[in-house]
Backbone:
């Protein structure tokens, strides 16, 4: 069956067998893992992963690709037709390992959706645009440090695994990609993300302004020990967490 790549579903299919092998080795699937792949496409990662597993689930939005996968009749594979952006990962009976070469056009909202479902997650290994991975793992003080870095590092340990050149895909994307690993933090200092989200969004709303300015409507210098004459990018993830705790005390 021929399939024409659909831009609106962010379809760039992996065609580089060495890279595929390296991603599978990084995931290191064990037979009993509850592994879920987001966006299996034509199965570039799915089939080698399946070889190592007793069972596997995939979530795909494109009906033509679902038909293609189902026509191959893989006994151990469950294909779920769904939009991963609204899929309720909370409905899973056991915690899952989540993997995927994610559609780049929805990578940030998808990561925020998964953040809300982190209690159902053992770990996550994703391919993303290299530029997005750089932003996620950025340390404070760097130019790429921002909302994505703070929100994800507050709840996950994150690690850039390796870069993937654009030649590894068909069709070729314009930019480089990278593999990133996420493990939920057992020492996460906040139980939920809503207030942190509000503080971080306001803090980075105008990067050049001081925190005092950006957080005006949220909290004042008198309400926190954190020096608000700094700019948002200077604050570590832990300081953002403390700021959020100070903000929570006001409510
Ligand atoms: N895993 C395949 C590979 O590596 O060759 C395909 C990766 S391609 C970058 C992204 C895949 O995600 C496509 O199969 C696409 O149809 C699917 N997809 C796009 N948006 C989705 C969504 N909201 N929910 C689930 N799957 C989606």
Residues:
């Amino acid at each position: 069956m021929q399939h024409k790549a659909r831009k609106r579903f962010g379809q760039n299919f992996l065609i580089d067998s060495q890279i595929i092998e390296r991603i599978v080795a990084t995931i290191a699937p064990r037979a009993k893992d509850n592994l879920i792949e987001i966006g299996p496409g034509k199965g570039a990662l799915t089939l080698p992963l399946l070889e190592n597993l007793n069972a596997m689930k995939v979530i795909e939005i494109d009906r033509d690709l679902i038909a293609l996968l189902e026509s191959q009749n893989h006994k151990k594979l469950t294909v779920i037709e769904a939009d991963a952006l609204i899929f309720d990962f909370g409905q899973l009976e056991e915690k899952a390992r989540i993997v995927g070469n994610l559609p780049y056009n929805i990578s940030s909202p998808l990561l925020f959706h998964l953040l809300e479902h982190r209690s159902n997650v053992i770990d996550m290994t994703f391919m993303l645009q290299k530029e997005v991975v750089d932003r996620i793992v950025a340390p404070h003080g760097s130019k790429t440090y921002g909302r994505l870095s703070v929100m994800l590092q507050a709840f996950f340990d994150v690690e850039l695994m390796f870069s993937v050149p654009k030649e590894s895909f068909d069709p070729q994307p314009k930019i480089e990609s990278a593999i990133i690993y996420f493990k939920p933090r057992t020492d996460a200092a906040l139980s939920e993300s809503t207030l942190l989200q509000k503080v971080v969004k306001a803090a980075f709303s105008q990067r050049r302004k001081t925190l005092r300015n950006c957080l005006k409507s949220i909290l004042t210098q008198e309400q926190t020990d954190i020096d608000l004459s700094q700019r948002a990018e200077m604050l570590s993830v832990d300081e953002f967490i403390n700021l959020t705790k100070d903000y929570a005390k006001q409510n």
